[in-house]
Design goal:
By secondary structure, the chain is mostly helical. 50% of the residues lie in helices and 12% in strands. It has a domain at 14-99: Winged helix-like DNA-binding domain superfamily/Winged helix DNA-binding domain (Arc Repressor Mutant, subunit A), CATH 1.10.10.10. It contains 4 helices and 5 strands; from the N terminus they run αβααββββα. The longest helix is centred in the C-terminal third of the chain and has 33 residues, at 100-132. The mean pLDDT is 87.
């Protein structure tokens, strides 16, 4: 296994804890963060490698990867490997980790939009109730 170039530690922004990640999402994210190339913000560990590192089955790792994608923390891209016989087969996913500050801003922006929408629905419901109530 190849270790990251920044030694026996990796940084994890405090903002990650504002997103309400589950323990599984956090474990998978931390492993990807540990593997991440600091210049490209990419890595490509196998699902099996991630599962072994965080103590999860491959299906569970896949579930958490999907959830991290839905939250906007990571992007995934399929890769191809050329075999010795010059054939092609699927390689590991390439993971790109988005800057956490951007993800947190997106998270709060979505929450604000949801709140504004909820407030508007409540206003409309009140107006309808007032119109339907006898005077």
């Amino acid at each position: 296994m190849k270790y990251s170039s920044h030694g026996n530690f990796f940084s994890l922004p405090n903002e990650i804890f504002l997103l309400g990640l589950s323990h599984g999402e956090l474990a998978v994210y931390c492993y990807l963060r540990r593997c991440e190339n600091q210049k490209t913000h990419q890595c490509w560990p196998s699902i099996q490698t991630i599962g072994g590192a965080v103590g999860m089955s491959e299906n569970t790792v896949r579930k958490y990867i999907r959830q991290l994608e839905e939250r906007g923390l990571i992007l995934t891209e399929p890769t191809e490997v050329v075999t010795k016989s010059h054939g092609k087969r699927n390689g590991n996913l390439r993971f790109t980790l988005r800057p956490v500050q951007e993800v947190v801003e997106d998270f709060y922006s979505r929450q604000l939009k949801d709140l504004e929408l909820s407030t508007e629905w409540q206003r409309i419901a009140k107006l309808l109730q007032e119109r339907e109530s006898p005077a």
